[in-house]
Amino acid sequence: MIIRQRNEKARVSRAEKCVPIVGGACIAFCLCLLAPVVLGSETRAVGSAFDKASGEFLYKELHRCLLDEEHCVVEYRDNVGKLLASKKLDYRGKPYRPSLVLKDYRSGRELSLEPPNDDALVVDAGFDNFVRSRWEIFDSGGSVQFNFLVPGRDTPIAMRADRDNREDCDAGALCIQVGLDSWLLARFVDPILLTYASDDRLLLRYDGPGNLASQDGSVPDVVIHYEHLEVHEGDLSDWGSGDLIVNDWTESGIAR
Fold first, then answer.
1. Does 218 map to a domain?
2. How many folded domains does the chain comprise?
3. Residue 211 is part of a domain; what is its CATH number?
4. 206 near 226, Cβ under 8 Å?
5. pTM of the full predicted structure?
């Protein structure tokens, strides 16, 4: 079951999924999703990631943005709130191709990406904005091809997104599958499955490769459930520090 909590104010922010922040090579097919949809207010989103095979809890994704909705940060934390990794995103003038910096506090590794000036390119978490910009196409059963760039790669990947009419797609949801735009390669790589709410177009569920590699360097397939909650100006503290504070998130009702 997809758990989706909201109070009367609830709306959202930014989600993601991308090439593992840590570990060795893996197929650069992971997406980085959540993007802001509420203008004029800071937002939060919490994603709970579980191992798809075992059901074991792996990590939480904590998403928040400044009031301008163009500067966002994502924290990855374990079940006791320890900071594992973080990502800073700068969307200024580039809703589909943010620049970003990834830091893995377990290994000290850092990756940065300043995307090329190509309006046709989709980068990392910009995919979430891209989905909403093509919403009517997906809603009518159409498909979209795009070039996708992630940290750790020099060239984009040709990908394709289609509406997914699978039987377990909940009523009131828009389900999308994302795969490689090559019929041959796509035979060997499972598509990423996304579930969006039809009413407010917010990401509810991600099913695909995880963001964080395991200790052995492998990248587990995960299922991530997203919950969205509006917050107030000033709640984003320590912007720019190496260890961003979760504030009350780990103790809140949506971060259990």
1. yes
2. 1
3. 2.50.20
4. yes
5. 0.77
